[in-house]
Design goal:
The protein is an alpha/beta fold. It contains twelve helices and 22 strands. Among the domains are: 172 residues, Acetylglutamate kinase-like (Carbamate kinase); 76 residues, VC0802-like (2-Layer Sandwich), CATH 3.30.2130. The structure holds aspartic acid and magnesium ion.
Length: 419
Amino acid sequence: MALVVMKFGGTSVGTTDRIMHVARRLIAAKERGDQVVAVVSAMGDVTDDLLGLAAAISLTPPVREMDMLLATGEQVTIALLAMAIHSLGHEAISFTGAQAGIVSDASHMKARIQEVRADRVMDALAAGRIVIVAGFQGLTPDGEITTLGRGGSDTTAVAVAAGLGADLCEIYTDVDGVYTADPRVEPAARKVETVSYEEMLELAATGARVLQLRAVEFARNHGVVLHVRSSFNDNPGTIVKEADETMEQAIISGVTHDTSEAKVTIRDVPDRPGVAAVVFGRLAEQNVNVDLIIQNVSEAGSTDISFTTPKEDLARAKRTVEAVVTELQAREWQVDEAVAKISLVGAGMKTHPGVAARMFATLAEAGVNLDMISTSSIRISCVVGADQAETAVRALHSAFGLEAAAIVAESSPSGRGAV
Ligand code: ASP
Ligand code: MG
């Protein structure tokens, strides 16, 4: 008998028909002899709708009350799903995050799970019930309701799987798995069979929306193997796990794009020690996240500094930069919101030289101008104009042969020639 955690996202539980479908899927797993825990998101766009309601009342609502509001979305789904299972003649019980023992820190709207006290879930499983847990929410040790950040139900599923020592953590979603690119942009995109935590972290961080970044971190830290698959069919999806030598080794696992960041440039900053420390120190004090940074070659004692930041942090970034320009006596600052970050991710980059050169040549041939570049050992990212994002993704996808099975065994000599 295996213990499985099955997570269903908002689209998968978007209507009462779909909730019935999920109920049947859980019952089928139970009837195969498994112990079944479901983790579910709010139905469809409910979380967005709740955010809209709050925004209609206040632009700066207290974060505690935001969590009180947002946590209701998932509570609707768990109750309906438990009713659906009962209506089909099986035993189920729903739990809020608090009831399921999800203990989090107190940072509202982006809380981190500290511990899962799974006794109540265990008892219900032992009593033969299907257990349904509300995703995306926790309770602080002081008894305050929190939420875990957008997409946080993934993290709940992983944490519950780790806490229960589950044999399997399945993430059911509206796509068949992790793709080599967004299929809406590149129709030739291909489902990847296995991907390492390391690669999945880079993919999630650079725009692949299929898994929440924090969930992947949690899975890696606790060694939870994930199976990302569709809730609408029985096709095998993508396995996310620790890299090992038996794993198929792609040189490039995928190309992602992200239009959620803006570029800020400060012009003619005096070129002396400590200036970057002031700029990025002030931004950090204001909780502005910074991604790519570039500093131009200095001319006549001054230089330009550009960085990218999530658009949701942009209002704070603008206020901070305005003050920094005065403080440092820089000339001016500018914002460009029409940018996209294109990233190529693959563990094979470590051992296959020439990937960056090939990426830049491909983008040049496609007429895509590069604004900024950054790299990690398994990722290369370029900032380009937003209107060139789709061209860039398609050009790279084809240049790196991602539509075909460009996967080669690490030991295979032909692997070298592929890039
Ligand atoms: N309902 C939340 C959201 O839309 C959490 C989730 O779906 O994972 O972000
Ligand atoms: Mg959602």
